[in-house]
Amino acid sequence: MSPFDQLVDEAWPAPHRVEAEGWICRHAGGVTKRANSVLPLGERDDLRRAVDEAEGFYAGLGLPCVFSVGAQAPPDLDRELERRGYRRADPTLVMTAPLAEPAPGAVPDAEIHDSPSESWLRTWWQVDGGRHPDGGEVAAREWAERILGGVGAGYASAGAGMAVGRGVPQGDWLGIYCMAVDPGARRRGLGGSVLRALLAWGRERGASRAYLVVTMANAGARALYEGEGFGVAGNYHYRIAP
């Protein structure tokens, strides 16, 4: 059984969540589909009723119902959602890599702190925040900071804060999140510097392997990760209610 559905949920925790028989309805003010979707972990006795209940949860919040459909979702769920008119969105790859010993004398070209600075937040939000519409930017930023603060993590930056990333130690695993480079600072190797620094930082904290998630459409990021030794280990996608 793939561990990635749970790892991703733990590393990107929605502040508001309701669990029923292994399915988790997550809410974070609309900030990221990941934190505002149903995570269906395992079979339910009555699949249609389970979907009805999830739809009722999000209707009560005035939000569309979204499902994250990964390796642990019931086999018939995708078909049921398609029957209801849910559209498929954002096919995403899970990529993994072993954490190798750094080269002798190698010094990570990035700083890592245990909380995000204002410049870190600004860079990440500039790249990623425009995808989070409802409720206004101030409210969305507050929800985002609640997600980030929900679990211990390291916050890396390079190039005077023009490139950032987040590492989440999870036992043997290190989760890589929030990789973002200011549009004006791209193609200078800053993203690679942030990634390598996080991998070294994670190894120091006992992790032996790393994972990350990246949309299939993001060819540039995929090329960066492949160049650093990551390979595809799984996938998931979303289903969004009509």
From TrEMBL:
Signal peptide: none annotated. It comes from the Bacteria. The lineage of its organism: Bacteria, Bacillati, Actinomycetota, Actinomycetes, Streptosporangiales. InterPro entries: Acyl_CoA_acyltransferase (IPR016181), GNAT_dom (IPR000182), NAT_camello-type (IPR050769), Rv0428c-like_C (IPR056935). It comes from Planotetraspora mira. The keyword Metal-binding does not apply. It holds the Pfam family Rv0428c_C. Residues 110-242 form the N-acetyltransferase domain. GO terms for molecular function: N-acetyltransferase activity. This is N-acetyltransferase domain-containing protein. SUPFAM superfamilies: Acyl-CoA N-acyltransferases (Nat). CDD domains: NAT_SF. Keywords: Transferase.
